[in-house]
Design a protein that fits this description.
The complex is a heterotrimer of chains A (about 290), B (about 280) and C (about 400). Chain A is an all-alpha fold and about 290 residues long. Chain A is built from 13 helices and two strands. In chain A, about 75% of the residues lie in helices and about 0% in strands. Chain C has helices spanning about 40-50, 90-100, 105-120, 135-150, 165-185, 195-200, 220-225, 230-235, 375-385; strands spanning about 5-15, 15-25, 30-35, 55-60, 65, 75-80, 155-160, 185-190, 205-210, 210-215, 240-250, 250-255, 260-265, 275-280, 285, 295-305, 310-320, 325-330, 340-345, 350-355. In chain C, strand 9 and strand 10 form a beta hairpin. The chains are: A mainly alpha (about 290), B mainly alpha (about 280), C alpha+beta (about 400).
Chain lengths: ~290, ~280, ~400
């Protein structure tokens, strides 16, 4: 059909130049040694990848990224589900509660992280103060010094930041469930937990699938939290693939290697997306057939 | 819920809700409290819950201590530019995808959905190199182009949904009325989808406002820094002035918070609509 | 005003044939109705005339111009959509004026036309309102107005009354008829409602499965349906059907169905044929006693009776299990289970080939084809053919 081009042109040019071209370039860069000025020095084929995978720090950052993602997404989804179920009921100030929940989402992740950095200040931050006031721990916990403290804290911050969008999307999903399904269930004798597992959850599957997918992608690629608090340290012990990539490119000036890390990230997420889509669509299709009865 | 849950369950439920909300909001309480503390009280031990001598003037002084004005102006320009580029690129593209039949249309739709999964991180290295070659490092335009490129697919996706929802017969009536495609877009589709368009564009404004990764990577010249990168580097340099940092952060967040409140309901509806399709 | 000619027009969507080789000639100023069930292709055909669908084969001419490949806006046609398709964000005035503005008409002329059309359709008090503030009937008039204001050569209407409630529909129908007389334009009207078609059309095109079944005036279609589909589609209650066999006898023809048998006058059939005999409920009389000298379908048991106010119909089961509907005296107090004799006259029988559904002209004398034999209650009861008998 003639004349489509002018409509698509600006978008195609913009996205083509600044998204697709860089992706293609990343692939090429990953196969070369590239310095911080973008000069290609040597073609090494899969050499960058070989070097990466033989590096213990890189391997542990893959492992750590997966742990990070699973921990954040699972806990976020669980808490958000709970919150959504409560927020959909009628109670005074419900609108206020829902609006207040927006705060962490509306705030830039950097600012939120800086805020948490202050709260986690060992001497003057509110976190230790709170813990000792509640009698939980009177120790002067240096949250950012040890990975055994900083990593859980950062996971907690990521959960804290992911709950609002997930909760609000699940609320919207719950609102979309046909009320007559609950009525039919009540007549059939479903109560409490049964209602939730047999009626609510299956109907929520599509929305849940989307929130999980979006969360996994977003959390896997999360940069500000870890970078601001620990820069992946000390000594790379809280590195995720993202911070590892950043250091490779902008501190070690190994752009080719950094590009290789980017390709690895992309590959892992691609596989996940394909698997996830196949699983969730198959489930939805099955549901559709059952509902014919 | 049809059946009435027992009193015990309800009390537990709402108590837990209050607890969770408390954890969600506590940092902001701390934000406000810290922003109001005079520097002298910042490092008292144990830290007081409420500032003993709240100092509103912090909110004025911070503009001297941090180049907030410059950061604000840069951020507004970057976010505004991103929003405008989105409008120019995404609106016609979404219209074409929603209403025209052309070979490859399905493919383009799949690509649009797929690009949502390209995280900025994957693009970082190569786009840094590209910006360097184009001489766009340390410029606002570099960030605008990058932010726009990464948000346009999402905007196209949302707007395609809105445009497709307009009844076919209205467009056919216009065709019979001798209304050409561009005119139909401006006279019909845009006015009729205005709420959706505003939501999507304001969302890209917010995304660009809060963007950190590219801002901190592409820009080293402080005069070109937006709020996110600016506040971050402030911590590095002036690590003890948390009260001013908090005051600055609060002010940096308020515009976005207000915009967010306005669009949030329609935004979530748009996001979940795609899911349940 | 212009004529419309369709020659061999077809439309295919992938493997599906929506419209198959339609040949049609619409006279200048004629009101033509495209009638048929959902999915028969009538709307697709209309849209091809408008240019909103491109014909896969064939030619479309408006006036003397071949418009098959011409842009819809340049065909000089205006369309009233089923859902009205008013521009929701424009006032009634703007809705009417928009098309004219897009064509570059001078402002004064636009104003004249809009005022004239508004007056014609009684839209003047509504000009500043938005479509959302109008009732269904008012929106429909604006949709009409938008078409009228263009002064097109051909008006195309796609089921404009189907979104209105029953009472409004009748009202609007009459308004349309009056309007049509005033405007004297060529109108092509799509509907699935046979009452609309019969009351409004100069000629009706009955369609089914993408094919034209028959074209003719309402009375032609009613009295001489070309096939089973047209026969059963028009007329309420639906025409009664009896499947059976027609054979030649020494005196003429004999019809045999399950439990039913009678003789008919008529031309001979070369060999025995499986047919469907059709007889409209209006042309059957149910009475306690059979009428001698007429065709009798035998005795039937009343299953139920429909009272429609000025007419009543009894549904009877006759031998062989067939359910037959017959007109009875309006408001008659028939008891269920009563037995009645059904009689009719051969002039009112229709005969269709069982296999093809096509009409078989074996029953009537060729000469009396165009005669409309009046028939009424008195007649059936043997009081002679009176010219003051009821028309159907």
């Amino acid at each position: 059909m003639r004349g489509v081009a002018p409509f698509l042109a600006p978008a195609v040019v913009l996205v083509g130049m600044f998204m697709f071209y860089p992706i293609g370039m990343s692939v090429w860069m990953a196969l070369n040694k590239v310095d911080q000025f973008g000069h290609f020095s040597k073609f090494v084929g899969l050499g960058n990848f070989r070097d990466l995978f033989s590096n213990a720090d890189f391997r542990s950052s893959i492992y750590r990224t997966i742990i990070w993602t699973i921990a954040v997404v699972v806990v976020t989804t669980a808490i958000s589900l709970f919150l959504a179920v409560v927020l959909i009921r009628r109670f005074p100030f419900r609108a206020v509660a829902r609006s207040l929940l927006l705060l962490p989402w509306a705030t830039s992740l950097v600012i939120s992280t800086l805020l948490w950095q202050w709260i986690a200040n060992p001497d003057f931050g509110a976190l230790n103060h709170l813990l000792s006031s509640l009698g939980i721990s009177h120790a002067r916990i240096d949250w950012l010094a040890e990975p055994s403290h900083s990593f859980p804290l950062m996971i907690g911050i990521a959960i804290w930041a992911s709950i609002p969008p997930t909760t609000l999307m699940l609320v919207a999903g719950l609102q979309g469930i046909d009320a007559s399904l609950y009525e039919a269930g009540a007549l059939d004798g479903a109560k409490g937990w049964h209602t939730f597992f047999d009626i609510t959850l299956p109907q929520l599957r599509p929305v849940l699938a989307v929130t999980i997918l979006l969360n996994v992608i977003f959390v896997f690629n999360s940069f500000p939290i870890i970078w601001v608090l620990t820069q992946g340290g000390p000594a790379g012990q809280t590195d995720t693939l993202v911070t590892y990539l950043y250091k490779q490119g902008f501190q070690l000036y190994q752009m080719g290697s950094a590009a290789a890390v980017a390709i690895v990230i992309f590959g892992i997420l691609l596989v996940f997306s394909v698997v996830h889509t196949r699983l969730s669509w198959r489930g939805v299709l099955q549901q559709k057939d059952e509902r014919l009865w | 819920m049809v059946a009435q849950t027992s009193l015990v369950s309800r009390v537990t439920l709402y108590t837990l809700l209050v607890l969770v909300l408390g954890v969600m909001l506590f940092p902001f309480f701390e934000l406000g409290a810290t922003a109001l503390r005079p520097t002298a009280d910042l490092f008292s031990f144990p830290p007081p819950w409420l500032p003993t001598h709240p100092r509103l003037h912090n909110f004025v002084d911070v503009w001297r201590i941090i180049p907030l004005r410059s950061y604000f102006v840069n951020t507004v320009e970057i976010a505004g530019g991103t929003m405008l580029l989105n409008a120019v690129a995404a609106i016609p593209a979404a219209y074409a995808l929603a209403r025209f039949r052309f070979p490859g249309r399905q493919a383009v739709l799949y690509v649009v959905i797929a690009t949502q999964m390209f995280a900025p991180v994957v693009l970082l290295i190569a786009s840094f190199r590209l910006m360097s070659q184009l001489g766009l490092l340390n410029t606002l335009w570099g960030l605008i182009l990058m932010d726009a490129a990464t948000t346009v697919p999402f905007t196209v996706w949302m707007l395609t949904g809105y445009f497709a929802a307009i009844p076919r017969e209205i467009e056919e009536a216009a065709i019979l009325d001798r209304v050409g495609r561009w005119r139909r877009l401006f006279d019909l589709f845009i006015p009729l989808s205005m709420p959706g368009i505003v939501t999507a564009l304001v969302f890209t404004f917010i995304l660009a406002w809060n963007e950190f990764l590219f801002a901190v990577t592409f820009v080293t010249d402080d005069s070109k820094r937006p709020l996110t990168a600016g506040l971050y580097t402030f911590v590095g340099r002036f690590s003890t002035q948390w009260n001013y940092l908090m005051a600055g952060s609060a002010m940096a967040s308020i515009p976005v918070l207000l915009l967010f409140l306005v669009i949030q309901r329609r935004l979530i509806a748009g996001l979940t609509a795609g899911a349940v399709k | 005003m212009a004529s419309v000619v369709l020659r061999g027009v077809s439309k295919r969507f992938g493997d599906t044939v929506a419209v198959e080789r339609v040949d049609l000639e619409v006279a200048d100023g004629e009101f033509l109705v495209l009638l048929g069930p959902s999915g028969c292709g009538k709307t697709t055909l209309l849209r091809m005339i408008a240019g909103l669908e491109v014909a896969s084969d064939g030619a479309i001419l408006i006036g003397d111009r071949d418009v098959t490949r011409v842009h819809p806006a340049d065909r000089d046609v205006a369309m009233v959509f089923q859902s009205y398709a008013l521009y929701p964000h424009m006032t009634v005035h703007k809705n009417l004026a928009y098309g004219l503005r897009r064509r570059g008409m001078p402002k004064r002329e636009i104003e004249e036309r809009v005022t004239e059309t508004a007056r014609l359709l009684e839209l003047e008090p509504l000009l500043a309102r938005l479509p959302a503030q109008l009732s269904g009937g008012q929106r429909q008039r604006v949709a009409l107005g938008r078409a009228i204001v263009r002064h097109p050569a051909v008006f195309l209407l796609d089921e404009p009354l189907s979104n209105l409630d029953a009472k409004l529909r009748v009202q609007t129908r009459n308004e349309l008829i009056r309007l049509r007389r005033r405007l004297a334009v060529t109108m092509i009207y799509v509907t699935h409602d046979q009452v609309e078609a019969m009351t409004m059309g100069d000629r009706i095109v009955v369609m089914n499965g993408g094919r034209v079944q028959q074209v003719g005036t309402p009375l032609e279609l009613f009295d001489r349906p070309n096939n089973r589909f047209v026969a059963t589609f028009l007329g309420t209650p639906q025409m009664n059907e009896l499947e059976g066999r027609l054979t030649r006898t020494s005196r003429g023809l004999e019809f045999v169905a399950e439990g039913v048998q009678f003789e008919l006058p008529g031309a001979a059939v070369p060999e025995p044929r499986d047919v469907v005999l059709g007889i409209r409920p209006h042309h059957l009389w149910a009475a306690p006693k059979a009428v001698p000298g007429r065709i009798s379908l035998g005795s039937g048991i009343v299953e139920f009776v429909e009272h429609l106010g000025n007419e009543s119909f009894a549904y009877l089961t006759i031998a062989g299990g067939h359910t037959i509907a017959a007109e009875v005296e309006a408001g008659s107090t028939l008891t269920l289970g009563a037995a009645l004799e059904l009689t009719t006259v051969p002039e009112r029988l229709h005969c269709f080939d069982l296999a093809t559904g096509d009409r078989l002209d074996v029953l009537r004398d060729r000469a009396s084809d165009n005669e409309r034999t009046p028939i009424g209650a008195r007649e059936i009861h043997g009081e002679g053919a009176g010219s003051d008998g009821d028309d159907d």
